[in-house]
Design a protein that fits this description.
By secondary structure, this protein is α/β, with parallel strands linked by helices. Bound molecules: 6-O-phosphono-alpha-D-glucopyranose.
Length: 606
C-alpha cells in the first residue's frame, strides 16, 4: 500500500513525480505529497485527497530533485498533517511505504531527546531518527544506515536532505522498490508502472538494499552495507499499456482485454502441450514425487485457488488444500514431504502471502510454485518455479484479467498433473487443448452480451443486498461475483455454495433479494434447479447465468443469460458476466470504479 516515487534529473522533476504518482494511485489515494530539493532548499507540498489535487497545489513548483507519495492510511486518518513526506528536524524529508512496527518505542525515545511530532504516522519516527543519527555522524548515508538498522517491520523509503543537496537515497526491506535509469537522470518507485513513461531500464532492489543516487550514478549497497551491482534490465512494455485509451475506466479496459490476455497466457501451453516444462526445468522431477498440493493466496487470487482445487482433484489423485494466506501463517498446519506450495498473486508483493510462503518453508521440505503477473516480483524471486500470467499491467483495484489468466494457468497445471500421472485419456487431453484454443473467442462472445448485463445492472443498482450461488467449480465464482459487487458497487453481497442455501441464507430471501446463480449443464444441474425453486417459492428474483438451454431448464428465472462454450472452462467464462454486472452496477451508482473507497490494489502490509 502507498506508492512512492523519487526522481533526480537536470530538468524539473515535478511533472515526472506527478505522472508517476498517478500511475501508483492504485496503491492508495487518500492523500498525497511532494518533497522537493532545489538549491539546497526543501519544499513540501501536501494535500488530503487525490493526486489531481496535488497537481493543482504544485502547479508553480519546480526542482531537479524530489520525492513523492500517495497514501493508503495505516497510522492516522487521511489528512494533510499525516500525508507524506514527513520532516525530520528541518533538514530531512522522508516518504515511506510499509509499516514500522517498533515506531512506539522509537517515538518515546525521540521525544525524550526533544523531538516534537506533528503527525500520527509511524513514518515521522523515521524522519526524526535519521535527523538524530545525522547529528552524530554528519553523513547522510551513515545516518540512514544507522537508522534502518533500528527499524522493525516493512518499508520502502525515499529520503532527501539539505545536508546532501545533490543526492537522493532510497532503501527497501519487505516492500517493493525499483530503480530506473535515464540519460543523466535516475528514478525510484514502488512499481515499474510509475516509471514506464520515462524509462524502460529497470533495476530491482533486493531485500535490504539501499541506493545512493546522484546525477552520474546510483550506487547500491546490500543489507550488510557492502557496495553491490544489481542487474539492469531493459523492459519491453509499451508505455501505452497504462493509457486508458477510449475507455471510461481501467476496469472496463481490463475486462475487454481478457481474450487477448488469455491468448498470451496460454500460448506456450498450446504449443508445448500439458508438459511440466511449462512450470520450469525442475518441475518434471518435483511433480513426479508430489503427494499434496497446498494453495495459498488472498482476495480474488484465493478464489482462483479454490477453483483449482476442484480441477486438480478431478483430474489427478493429488490431495489439495487451499488456504487464505493471512490465516495459514498463524495456523499450525503441517506440511508432509513432497508438498507443492502453489502461491497465487497478481502483484507478487502481497505481504500476507509472502509471509505464508516463508512460513510453509519452515514447516517442511516443500517446493514453491508462484503463479504471478509480475516478473521479478518478491514472490517470483523467492519461488522455486514460476508460471507467469501474461495479463499485462492491471491498474483497476478489482482484479479482472489477472484473475482470469490465473485460472487459465491453474487449468493447465491440473491437466499437467493428470497427464504426468497418466490419469487421463489422450482424447480428454485433446479435448482440453481444443477448449483452451477456443477460449479467447468464447470469451469475446461472452463479453458481447454486455448490453444484456447492463440491463441487469440497472435493476441490481436499487438492491441493498445480493446473493450469489454456484456449485462445484462455480461456487468460488459465486464468491468472486459477490466480492466484485461489494468492492466496487458497495452492495452487500454474499457468495454461497447453492447446497448451503437451506442452511441459513434462505432466511433472507424475499422479493427484495436478487439471487445471481451460475449453473452448468452437468450432473449437478438438477440439484441447483431444486435450490432455485426454493428461492422462487419465497419470491426471490433469480438472475441465471447458464450454458445453452438454461432458459428452458429454469422458466421461472427472472432473467437468464446463456453463454457460449463453457463446459470444463465454465469457471473462466462465467466470471465475465459477473465482472460486467459489478462494473455496470457501480457505474449506475456512480462509485469510483477503479479506486473503490478504503481499498488498494497491492496490499503490502499485514
Ligand atoms: C487486493 C486487491 C485484490 C487482490 C488481492 C490479492 O485486495 O484489491 O484485487 O485479489 O489484493 O492480491 P494479489 O496481488 O496477491 O493477487
Amino acid at each position: 500500500m502507498c506508492g512512492i516515487v523519487g526522481a533526480l534529473s537536470n530538468r524539473n522533476v515535478v511533472p515526472m513525480l506527478l505522472a508517476g504518482l498517478e500511475l501508483l494511485e492504485y496503491r492508495g489515494y487518500d492523500s498525497s505529497g511532494l518533497g522537493l530539493l532545489a538549491g539546497g532548499q526543501l519544499q513540501r507540498i501536501r494535500v488530503k485527497g487525490r493526486v489531481s489535487e496535488l497537481a493543482r497545489a504544485s502547479a508553480d513548483a519546480s526542482a531537479p530533485i524530489g520525492i513523492a507519495h500517495t497514501r493508503w492510511a495505516t497510522h492516522g486518518e487521511p489528512s494533510e498533517a499525516n500525508a507524506h513526506p514527513h520532516l525530520g528536524g528541518d533538514t530531512i524529508l522522508v516518504v515511506h511505504n510499509g509499516i514500522i512496527e517498533n515506531h512506539a518505542q522509537l517515538k518515546a525515545r525521540l521525544m525524550t531527546a526533544g523531538y516534537t511530532f506533528t503527525s500520527e504516522t509511524d513514518t515521522e519516527v523515521v524522519a526524526h531518527l535519521i535527523h538524530a543519527e545525522l547529528q552524530r555522524s554528519q553523513n547522510l548515508l551513515a545516518a540512514v544506515q544507522a537508522s534502518v538498522a533500528q527499524l522493525e517491520g516493512a518499508y520502502a523509503l525515499g529520503i532527501a536532505s539539505t545536508t546532501a543537496p545533490d543526492t537522493l537515497i532510497c532503501v527497501r526491506k519487505g516492500s517493493p522498490l525499483v530503480l530506473g535509469s535515464g540519460f543523466h537522470e535516475f528514478f525510484f518507485a514502488s512499481d515499474i508502472a510509475a516509471l514506464l513513461p520515462f524509462t524502460q531500464r529497470i533495476t530491482h532492489l533486493e531485500e535490504g538494499d539501499l541506493a545512493v543516487i546522484t546525477q552520474d550514478r546510483a550506487q547500491i549497497y546490500d543489507a550488510a552495507g557492502q557496495p553491490v551491482e544489481r542487474p539492469c534490465r531493459t523492459l519491453d512494455i509499451s508505455p501505452e499499456s497504462t493509457d486508458l485509451g477510449h475507455y471510461r475506466h481501467y476496469m472496463q479496459k481490463e475486462i475487454a482485454e481478457q481474450p487477448a490476455a488469455l491468448a498470451s497466457t496460454l500460448e506456450r501451453a498450446l504449443q508445448l502441450g500439458f508438459q511440466p516444462a511449462l512450470f520450469g526445468p525442475q518441475a518434471e522431477a518435483i511433480f513426479s514425487q508430489l503427494r499434496h498440493v497446498r494453495i495459498l493466496a488472498c482476495g480474488s487470487s484465493y478464489h482462483a485457488g479454490l477453483v483449482a482445487q476442484y480441477w486438480i482433484e478431478e483430474m489427478s489423485d493429488l490431495a489439495v488444500s487451499v488456504d487464505i494466506a493471512s490465516e495459514y501463517r498463524y495456523r499450525q498446519a503441517r506440511e508432509p514431504d513432497h508438498t507443492l506450495i502453489v502461491a497465487i498473486s497478481q502483484s507478487g508483493e502481497t505481504a500476507d502471502l509472502l509471509a505464508a510462503v516463508r512460513s510453509a518453508r519452515e514447516r517442511g521440505n516443500v517446493s514453491v510454485l508462484a503463479i504471478c503477473n509480475v516478473p521479478h516480483s518478491s514472490l517470483t524471486r523467492e519461488a522455486d518455479m514460476v508460471a507467469l500470467t501474461y495479463a499485462g499491467i492491471e491498474i483497476g483495484v478489482a482484479s479482472t484479467k489477472a484473475f482470469i489468466t490465473q485460472l487459465a494457468v491453474l487449468f493447465t497445471l491440473a491437466a499437467t498433473f493428470a497427464q504426468q500421472q497418466q490419469r487421463i485419456s489422450r482424447e480428454t487431453l485433446q479435448h482440453y487443448q481444443h477448449a483452451l484454443t477456443r477460449l479467447p473467442q468464447w470469451c469475446s462472445d461472452t463479453l458481447a452480451l454486455e448490453n444484456e448485463i447492463s440491463q441487469w445492472a440497472h435493476e441490481l443498482s436499487h438492491a441493498a443486498h445480493a446473493l450469489f450461488l454456484g456449485r462445484h467449480q462455480l461456487f468460488p465464482i459465486a464468491l468472486e461475483g459477490a466480492l466484485k459487487l461489494k468492492e466496487i458497487a458497495y452492495i452487500h453481497a454474499e457468495g454461497y455454495a447453492a447446497g448451503e442455501l437451506k442452511h441459513g441464507p434462505l432466511a433472507l430471501v424475499d422479493e427484495t433479494m436478487p439471487v445471481i446463480v451460475c449453473m452448468r449443464n452437468d450432473r449437478l444441474t438438477e440439484k441447483v434447479l431444486s435450490n432455485l425453486r426454493e428461492v422462487e417459492a419465497r419470491g426471490g428474483q433469480i438472475y441465471l447465468i447458464g450454458e445453452p438451454g438454461a432458459a428452458a431448464l429454469a422458466p421461472f428465472a427472472h432473467r437468464v443469460l446463456e453463454i457460449p462454450g463453457s463446459g470444463d472452462l465454465a469457471a473462466i467464462l462465467m466470471t465475465l458476466p459477473l465482472q460486467l454486472l459489478a462494473y455496470h452496477t457501480a457505474c449506475r451508482k456512480g462509485t469510483d470504479v477503479d479506486k473503490p473507497r478504503n481499498l488498494a490494489k497491492s496490499v503490502t502490509v499485514e
